[in-house]
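Lab notebook, bench 4. We co-purified these components, and the gel suggests they stay together. Before we commit to crystallization screens, I want a quick structural picture of the whole thing.
Request: model the full complex, all chains together.
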Amino acid sequence: MKRKISLALCGVLLAGILFGCGGTDSTKETADQPKETAKVSEGTIKIGYFGPLTGGTAQAGQAAQNGAQIAINKLNANGGVLGRQLEMISYDDKSSPEEAVKAATKLVQSDKVNAIFGSLHSANVQAAAPVIEESKTLCVAGGTSPTWLEQGYTYLFRSISNSTVSAKQLAQYADAQGYKKIAVFTSNDEYGTSGADGFKEACKDYDIEFVASETMTNGDRDFTGQFAKVNAAAPDAVFIWCLGDDLGAVTKQLRQSGFDGPILGSESYTLPEILENAGTATDNVYFAAQYLVYENPEDAPEENMKEFLEAYIEEFGTAPMSDNAFRAYDGVMMIAAAMEISGADSGEELRDAYNNIDGYVGLAGMFSYKGGHGEGIDSMRIFQIQDGKYLEAK
Amino acid sequence: MNKIMKMLSVSKVQHSIALLLAAIVMIYPILFRESTYIQLIICTLGIYIIVNTGFDILFGYSGQISIGQAGFYAIGAYFSAIFSKAGIPVLISILLAAMIAAAVGFILAIPCSKLVHHFLSIVTIGFGEIVRLLALNGPTKLTGGANGIGGIPPVNLFGLKLTSNISYLYFVLALVILFLIIKNRIVNSRVGRAMLAIKCNPEASESFGMKLSKYKSMAFTAAAFYAGIGGALYAHLVRFISPESFSGEQSSMFLVMILVGGMGTFYGPVIGSFLIILVTEFLQTFGTYQMLIYGALIIFVLFVMPNGIAGTLRNKYYHLLNKLPVRVSKQSKEAK
Amino acid sequence: MFFQLLIGGLAVGCIYALIGLGYSLIYSASGLMSFVQGEIFMLGAYVAYTIYVGLHIPFLIAVLIAILIMFVFGMLLERGMISPLLRRGSKQIHIVLATIGLSIFLKNFAMIIWGSDVKNFPSALGEDPIRMGNVSISPQQIAIMAVTFICMVLLHFFMNKTKLGTSLRAAAQDPMAAGVVGINVSLTVGMAWALAAVLSAIAGILLAPIYGVYPKMGAILSTKGFAAAVLGGYGNMYGAIIGGLIFGVVETMAAGYIASSFKDIISFVVLILVLFIMPHGILKVKADD
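Here is the predicted assembly.
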């Protein structure tokens, strides 16, 4: 009796699968139709956000969410976009690709957002990309790894330069300074690996030899073995590409292990806590970044940055803790700009309008997405840390 | 209450309830076609049920603590991804990957059967970590390293591509039922009874002529196979895998699921997986506080139901029906 | 390079030893596994940070207060969570689950109260490393090794020469007999957990100047400390120390001579191989079945 029931169940299930499969196309249609009618409907414009709100990079995720909020506040104060107010729907992707897929699915399927900003980690962006692409939702992300824009997704865009640009700048700088032997020390995740690969690739044009190549795991704190090898190789400079929360310990230990030479790094060095954690170890650090994270709006040279910082401090009480706030702000503002230009609030038309953005001045500088396959800006500056202060390097 | 319990004990009633639930589960997604998010969750639930059912064979029935099931889960996922991307038909990739996981489980089980308790648990933790680290630092061409593997092909069921969540859901459900039935068979057979005997009293079982290592290895291999299937199914669902999904936290989650649900019972892993997923989804509304509440909840559940939910219910149920001697709830410390 | 690696490995090994000691203490006193030692390590560092940096209390006094607080915490943990669960019929694995739940709770608690940024814990000994030829040792590393040694000596003295310590050992060996002789067994179990918490907290305070203080600092240490304890012979205090030092040295040597990316893999492989050959750990402690 049991067996017969089980067999019957399996049969029903198989039928269900076939039914479900046959239904794939119709599911897509029914999903599209509400969107079509939503184009002309009233109601708020929903901007979705997903990023690491908990976990090791929670600061960056929260900063990004805040940055997006500032943008939305500003747009709403000026009458909204297309005459409608904006609201943000945000989910935590817990720095995990699985959660990123779930968050993105929720945003595009349940909440039916008009556009998305997120995520900050390239692995999470990659995981969520198929869902976002299939639902034809415009998505601007803040991760710097070039990989997720090389896969052929047409709905993904980036609101900062990618790490290849930083790598090129740093390689150029290294060559100009005459560094011939460089040791590479990176985190073994996607961020670190793509940074290292980009830098090594960029250095091919110059006469630079890589004398050591070491890695670390995000969260680890003991680098005795790695630094012993680095020092044994006697490099002219050390290239470090790690996430911000590790950098303080890394820099300090590298100095303590006996290396006093120049350090070449990423924009993660703009994280304010690193100066506190590493102290004088940060002297002689040179890094490529889109912008600095200013504690005081007065320090900001650009007008729009000053305005942003003042609004941020007023809303949240402190200056942003990570440059991801700027990435999110630029992203949301450009999404809004695309909406205004095209009159569309979602879908293919909005994506095409975004693709045509040319000459938009954001916090990062001048964006131009025409023909960029999702990349909009490719200029980074080299900064230097000396006595706990950031200076632009020559 | 007594009357309800008595009614529930009748086989026929149990079966019809099971059928009813199964029917609801099958019809529900069709009624809610739009909600692909819920379908995604149900698919994940099905996968976890499969993994935890296998885990239960290992832990609930033969008493071996493993906190490294995510390692077999990862092996299943990665190998299935690699095979299917290399051109092998997806269904065969899944099977092959699970068999590799089972083989690794078997190899690991031989020396592990000598270990007990904390020794076994640290070895399994170490195993889980090693698998994850190999995926991260191993040959990048194969495992994708930190980038993971993307573009994993969907399951191809005799020509039908299961790309939508809803079709995948039914596929997973079918497998869940299949594996639950298999587990039931194993557990109710001679092998299953031998495992229970070993769990309760290894020395006595040995003196009866049972070869401990044989049964322990069988349990390990079965659990590894189940976890491998689960991992492969996961790979073809999300179609992107990276080492971050296979950390010690994932192994912990499996452990939490079967402990909360109740080990050594048929429905325990099902209930546990269901509840934990429900709780984690529900807690999302609490934003940054979600994991805090989750940790507190685990402790709270343990205070209220020390043997897990199904375990405590079963104890109460048997108690009510006087099928077993009344269990004194205050056990002495020596009982392990 | 060898000596640099050796010193680094010993320093890290001392930390693993301290945490492993905690695990062994708990196991020998109550027969339980605890998976929350890493988070106690983290909590100890945060408490010390708050008192030292937040309240500007002089370093040594701040450390003493922090240790006291963590002692009470460990005691409360045992009395308030572990014992009640055991009384309700929880088995060993349920206690493991409870400690896992607590570790998740503590990690997020720290994140919410103190934030997830890395806090700077200024070293009381200064930052400048001592250079001897090719080898540079930071003052913190010296402190770690010295303090661990002192802890070992103190613990040995406590366990063997004091009444309380001897009753702890007695209760661990045979709770019923100890009870018959008039030893308050439940108090000694509480003490064991409290001592384990103190050891983990000390490790946290030692490492805070090097690591910085952040919620996830204890996570990997939970596993490695446990591994150290098991490697050396679970339940044996001296085993935990040996296990910790070996683990630390193997790990650092592997990173230095083989490849940093395989550092953790090699440590765990060595651990598993050792356990396969010596299923009861190095100091051949019998694992109660």
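The CA atoms of residues 62 and 195 of chain B lie 5 Å apart. Worth comparing against the SEC data before the next meeting. Confidence is low (pLDDT under 50) at residues 330-336 of chain B.
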